[in-house]
Write a structure and sequence with these properties.
The chain has about 55 residues and is an all-alpha fold. The protein has a domain of about 30 residues. The longest helix has 15 residues.
Length: about 55
C-alpha cells in the first residue's frame, strides 16, 4: 500500500480537491487514516454478507 504524503508539505496555493490518479494511488492509506473504524466496518460487511447473502 502506498503511503499518502500528498499534503505533507506546504503549498503556496491549495487547489480544489480532485480525485485523480495521484489520490487513487494512495486512497487505501488515506481512507484508513481518515475514517474512524474503517477496518472494522469493512470486516463487518464481510461477516454480514456471509450471514445474510
Amino acid at each position: 500500500m502506498a503511503h499518502d504524503s500528498i499534503y505533507a508539505h506546504t503549498h503556496q496555493e491549495i487547489a480544489d480537491f480532485v480525485f485523480d490518479e495521484q489520490v487513487a494511488s494512495v486512497f487505501q492509506d488515506m481512507i484508513q487514516r481518515s475514517v474512524p473504524g474503517y477496518k472494522t466496518i469493512i470486516s463487518a460487511i464481510g461477516l454480514l454478507t456471509e450471514r445474510f447473502a
